[in-house]
Amino acid sequence: IDDREVNIKRPNLRIGVIPAGSTDAVVYGTTGLNDPVTSALQIIVGESLLIDIATVHNEKGFVRFLATMLAYGFFGDIINQSDKWRYLGPLRYDLSGFCQFVLNRSYHTELTITLSPHDSSQMSREGTMSSSSSTNNTKHEDHGTQPTELVNASKSTENKNNQVIQNLIAPALAFCSRNCEICALANEHDSGKVRSSLQIKRQGRYTTINCLNMPGRCAKSKFGMSPFVHLGDGTFDLILVKRSWQTGFLRFLWQVANDGRSIEDLPNVERYRVSEVLIHPLHT
Description:
InterPro entries: Diacylglycerol_kinase_cat_dom, Lipid_Phosphate_FormReg, NAD/diacylglycerol_kinase_sf. Helix content is 38%, strand content 21%.
């Protein structure tokens, strides 16, 4: 289990969750509400739903399992500080959140991101099309293509490249639920078949880096931070919030609270559908 390259075998184990916590993110993400009676009845009748469980490793080996969200930066600092104020009850989250917002910390970080196989193959196909288009444009230029045609060809290539980036940042927007077709296809996939994945690198100062296996819905976030993440397709959503003025980060928090479906429209936010991410803090 200390080797992050090893795929952990799926256990034949069912876990029933009845909401009784501060946010109830697991129940919100799987049933859509945090009603204890509803959850108890679903357990009694035997309803089940496959969900992804990720592993977290550091340089020494395995750290813990991840079911909902891993946060580095703002939200991680909130949890760390609120644990010292447990005697305040749920109010501790609001107080520690306010303190961290005032501090407005950011962390210089390098990320190695392994995109989900679907996004990787899509980028490879469209990238090949763009390269072929560029080659053809060069040939036409040798045969006396007019300057206006070159401009149009250049714009066409640029549009295709922009579309590739958009597909990576904003994957297919569809709410995940029981009997989800995308998750079903992932579960039927032959584990012996090798699927190529594309790795990209990002570096900069980030206010928060979030990995979400579930939408992250709760009473204070109607749709959650990542409403369209799939619960059982072997991937998770990576959300990067770049350093900005407090007003910029406040817009992000407001968007998460009110409508997380479009947070990637903010200029300081990037969203990726990934299968693995390596977070390397740079102490500068």
